[in-house]
Amino acid sequence: MDVSLDSLQDTTKGSRRKVVVSVIMVSVIIHLIGGFGAAIWIVAKYFKPPEATFVAKKMVTIPPKIIDPKMAAAEFDAAAPKPVLDQKIASLRATDFALPDLPQMPVDQIIDFNPSTLVSDQVTGMLGKLGSGGGGSGGGGQGDGMNFFGLQATGKSVLIIFDISQSVVTKAERAGVSIETIRDETLKLIDQLSINTTFNLFQFSRYYQPFSKSLVAPTQENKEKAKAWLEKDFQTDGSLGRRDVRGVVSPQGGEDNGVVFVLTAAMELKPDVIFFISDGSFQSSQHSGQVPWELLEDLVKTYEKKMPELSKLNFLGFEMKSPDRKEMKKIVRDLGGKLKELK
After folding, report:
1. What is the distance between the alpha carbons of residues 5 and 137, in angstroms, rounded to a whole number?
2. Distance of CA 120 to the CA centre of its chain
3. What is the pLDDT of residue 80?
4. For residue 70, is pLDDT > 70?
5. Residue 270: which of 214, 314, 316 has the closest Cα?
6. DSSP assignment, residue 249?
C-alpha cells in the first residue's frame, strides 16, 4: 500500500515537471519570435523610402521703403534688374512624375537694357511735381551725353546761358544762326536728357532772367514750360531791362552787373555742364570799356577753392575778336570745357 502511494506521487510530480517545462519552453519561443519580429520591423523602417510629401515654404515679404524720388530714379537708372527665381515647393524625394523644365530666360537682354527707357509718364510727372526744387548735382560724374551745336559733353545737369546783347544777336544772324535755330537746338538738347538729369536756362545782357530758380528735371511738364519760355520770354531785340521783363535778376548793394554777375549765379547752381553762347565781348555798368578778363579769372579761382569740382564751361562764339578768343580759350580750358566758333 505504501509502495503504490509513493509511485503515484512520483508519477504526479513528473507530469507537473513536464507541464512546467513545456510552458516555459513555449513562453521562451514566443518571446524569441516576438523579439525577432520586432527587430525586423524596426530595421525595415530605415530601408523603406519615405512617402512623397510636399512642403510649402513661407515667403518672407519686406514692406517697401519710402525714399527720395530723385535718388530712386538715379538708382533705377544705374542698376539693371536680374531675374529672381523663388523656390515655391520642394519634395523630400523623387516622385513618380516629373515637372516640366523651366523656360530659358534671356538674361543678357534683361541685364543690358536701359531701365530709364521704361519710366512711364506717370512717374516722370510725379517727379515733375517737384518743380523748381531740383538743386544742382555739384559737378563730377559722367552722366548723360549731351550735344549742343556740335559740342559734346557729359553730365547729370546742364545750364545754357544765352547772351542776348544786340551785338551777339546781329553776329549770330550773320553766321546763319537765327533765334529760332537756337531755340530748336536748346529743345533738342533737353529732349536728349534722361529723367535722372536736371537743366536750366539763363538769358542775359547786363542782367539775367532764369527759366527757373534752380535746376529742374526734364519731365514732360517742364519741357513744355521751357518751350513756352523760349517762345514768349526769350528776348529777340537784344535788350533785357529790369522792369519790362518778369523774373529779371539784378545786382544788389552796388554790385556790378554783366558777365561776372551772371556766371556767379550759374556757378552757385553747381551744374555739371554750362553751355555759353556769346561773342566774348562783355560790358557792365561799372566799366566804361570791356569787362577785364582778370575778373573772370578771379571768379574761377574763387570757385576752385569753394567747390571740389567746377562746372565744365563750353563756349559757343560768334565773330570773336582775337584777344577775346585767346582769353576765353584759357578760361574754358581751366574749366575743362571746349570753345567753338559758329561761322
Report:
1. 127
2. 15
3. 53
4. no
5. 214
6. B
pLDDT score at 132 = 41
Of 172, 187, 183, the closest CA to residue 222 belongs to 187
Residue with cell 551745336: 149
Is the pLDDT score of 259 beyond 80?
yes
The answer to whether 80 touches 111, Cβ cutoff 8 Å, is yes
Whether the pLDDT of residue 196 is over 70: the answer is: yes
Cα dihedral 137/142/148/150 (nearest 10) = 160
C-alpha cell at 140: 563730377
- Provide the grid cell at 311: 562746372
User: What is d(CA 337, CA 315) in angstroms, rounded to the nearest whole number?
Assistant: 8
Max CA distance (Å), the chain: 171
CA nearest 153: which of 17, 339, 21, 288?
A: 339
Q: What pLDDT is recorded for position 35? A: 80
What's the angle, vertex CA 89, arms to CA 83 and CA 95, rounded to 5? Answer: 120
pLDDT at residue 312 tops 60: yes
| Least reliable range by pLDDT among 1-10, 184-193, 319-328 | 1-10
Neighbours of 330 (CB within 10 A): 15
Three-state DSSP class for 12?
helix
pLDDT band at 215 (very low <50, low <70, confident <90, very high): very high
What does pLDDT average to over the chain?
Answer: 79
The owner of cell 582775337 is 322
DSSP conformational letter for 11: H
Distances (CA, A) of 312 to 143, 157, 226: 13, 11, 22
Read off the C-alpha cell for 326: 585767346
Sheet holding 312-317, edge to edge: 208-210, 198-204, 157-163, 273-278, 312-317, 339-341
> Looking at the chain, how many residues does it have?
343
**Residue type (1 letter), 71:** M
- What is the spatial distance between Cα 312 and Cα 335, in angstroms, rounded to a whole number? 5
